[in-house]
Design brief:
Layout (H helix, E strand, L loop, with lengths): L4 E8 L3 H12 L4 E4 L6 H5 L3 E3 L5 H5 L6 H12 L5 H9 L1 H10 L22 E2 L7 H4 L8 E3 L7 H14 L3 E3 L2 E9 L2 E9 L5 H20 L1 H18 L1 E13 L8 H7 L7 E2 L8 H7 L5 E2 L4 E3 L13 E3 L13 H12 L4 E4 L1 H14 L2 H12 L2 E3 L2 H8 L3 H17 L20 E5 L8 H5 L3 E4 L2 E2 L7 E3 L5 E7 L16 H19 L2 H8 L1
């Protein structure tokens, strides 16, 4: 094998996980090359920029929030389940405060402005909030609730304020970022991964690279809501790459880190592993096509939890909707409505077959309209308008049920049991805390379609159900080394972020995926730089 470029560590995919891996490897003294098919950032730069952390972070302390490692661990144990070992989860919780300090040291801005109400994403006035189900009733019995969603400070969806400083820090540390370069094969020699084969536009004319970059940017966030537009752009990008790219072989003397995202943009993989989740919005870039996972499986890597998908059905803001009842077509409740939107989305898919309706009475609907302008950002107002657009009304519970196509008798029973439980002081059967419960009594009644919108177009854009994939390559939880089907580590290969099984591979709450990107990325970068050094030294003896 002849090599065109050489490095100690090669990082494939330069989003948050890739940047964290590259920084750690470079600061450990390794020469690092980071590859990205587009211009870097991936789904991370499009995200809300929320990092889940607790245990008494500097931001929490400044905001006057009391939290402990034990409380964070207790809550996440319920959310995470067996996605990772108890030891790994404990290690993540114990290092969460230091993780926020590490991000701050690398230029990521945070602010101790605490959001005073429950929301799916805070306004530009607030940057610390309850980003999961910490305050939901069932979880209060496990751990003291605390706000742990650390949103990078920046207007709008602030993923760019998380990714931008990390990318700049990596470059300042000496990482060579090779954009517009697509890895298609790992090179294995002597039983270990030795490098990467790529198609790169690195020597293409400048005007070609500019055009490719512009098309890539258009394919990213606009393409989330207009998939047909994305497919058209991707065909153009593929033609450019076919015409102008050349094969580049990059040696990785110590290790390769795969951090190329998940596979939500690949319709074939979605249909194979999670067919019931193909109707939502693919929240990611076209680069979330499973290519990082495929690079691993091509050399014998094992995968797990590929069928686990996070579907987000947010009903707040406004806060009063937490008191509404989410029912399926049979008129039965499915979940504690105060939980994080991913729990609602999961219930809608698994218990409602993708269908769900939110029931409110006239008082609840009035309070929701009143509070919305003070709690919502522009995109949340659009989403709320999409929800309201689906509304049907009735002077009785039975009338509104028939208008929505829901079983009227069962819905009446659901409402009567709900109201009677509140009046009698009986605990909610789904664990909803009294802070969020309210009776459904006064006509007219309204039902909003909270199911997964079918087809495409304006309705799906205004009333979205975003989805991300959670499974990936199986890794050693001490090093991030990729394992094969026999449970043995593939020498020289590491994985991080949504390319790998990690903290959020069973259940997602806001900020946990990005936190896992940082946690697993740093782990992989550190061990790629130093963990295989003995093997390298042995080869030269």
């Amino acid at each position: 094998m002849t090599w065109d470029l050489h490095a100690d560590v090669v990082v494939v995919g330069f989003g948050a996980a890739g940047a964290a891996a590259a920084i750690e490897a470079a600061e450990a003294g390794a020469q690092v090359i980071a590859l990205d098919r587009y211009s870097g950032g991936g789904a991370s730069v499009m995200s809300g920029g929320v990092v889940y952390a607790g245990g008494g972070t500097s931001v929490q302390r400044e905001a006057g929030v009391v939290d402990s490692v034990d409380d964070m661990y207790g809550y996440l144990s319920e959310e995470v389940g067996d996605a990772v070992s108890a030891e790994t989860l404990r290690r993540f919780c114990e290092g969460a405060a230091a993780m926020i300090d590490w991000l701050s040291a690398h230029g990521v801005p945070f602010e101790a402005s605490l959001c005073p109400y429950k929301t799916s994403y805070p306004s530009n006035r607030h940057y610390l909030y309850y980003s999961g189900s910490e305050a939901a009733g069932a979880f209060r019995d496990v751990a003291r609730p605390a706000p742990r969603g650390h949103r990078a400070k920046g207007k709008g969806t602030s993923g760019k304020m998380l990714y931008g400083p990390l990318a700049a820090s990596a470059k300042n540390a000496g990482v060579h970022v090779l954009s517009q370069t697509r890895a298609y094969s790992l090179v294995v020699e002597g039983g270990r991964v030795r490098g990467v084969e790529c198609h790169s536009l690195m020597n293409a004319p400048a005007h070609v690279r500019r055009r490719h970059r512009r098309l890539g940017l258009l394919s990213a966030k606009p393409g989330v809501y207009a998939p047909r537009f994305r497919y058209m752009l991707e065909r153009r990008l593929a033609r450019i790459e076919k015409k102008y790219s050349r094969t580049v072989r990059i040696e990785a003397r110590r290790g390769v880190v795969l951090s190329a995202g998940g596979f939500v943009a690949d319709r074939v993989m979605m249909a194979e592993h999670a067919p019931e989740y193909t109707g939502g919005i693919a929240l990611g870039t076209a680069g979330d096509d499973g290519s990082g996972i495929t690079l691993g499986t091509d050399v014998g890597a094992a995968t797990a939890k590929l069928g686990n998908i996070s579907a987000w059905r947010f009903i707040v803001p406004p806060v009063p909707f937490l008191g509404a009842l989410l029912v399926n077509s049979a008129g039965k409740r499915m979940v504690d409505e105060s939980r994080y939107g991913a729990a609602l989305g999961h219930a809608i898919v698994e218990k409602g077959g993708g269908r769900g309706w939110l029931l409110a009475d006239v008082d609840l609907a009035r309070d929701a309209r009143k509070q919305l302008p003070h709690q919502a950002m522009w995109f949340q107002r659009i989403q709320n308008a999409g929800l309201v657009r689906t509304a049907v009304h009735g002077n009785t519970v039975e009338d509104v049920a028939r208008a929505a196509g829901v079983d009227p008798g069962e819905l009446r029973e659901t409402v009567e049991r709900h109201n009677a439980a509140i009046a009698s002081g009986i605990a909610d059967p789904f664990g909803k805390h009294d802070d969020f419960r309210r009776p459904i009594v006064r006509a007219p009644f309204t039902m909003y379609d909270a199911g997964i919108p079918a087809g495409s177009g304006l309705a799906k854009m205004m009333n979205p159900c975003p989805m991300i994939t959670l499974g990936g390559l199986v890794v050693d939880e001490e090093t991030g080394g990729v394992k094969d089907a026999a449970g043995q580590i593939i020498a020289g290969l590491f994985a991080a972020g949504r390319t790998a099984v990690g903290l959020c591979s069973n259940s997602y709450v806001s900020g946990l995926s990005l936190a896992d990107c940082i946690f697993s990325g740093r782990r992989a970068g550190t061990h790629a730089a130093r963990g295989t050094r003995h093997a390298v030294d042995a080869d030269t003896m």
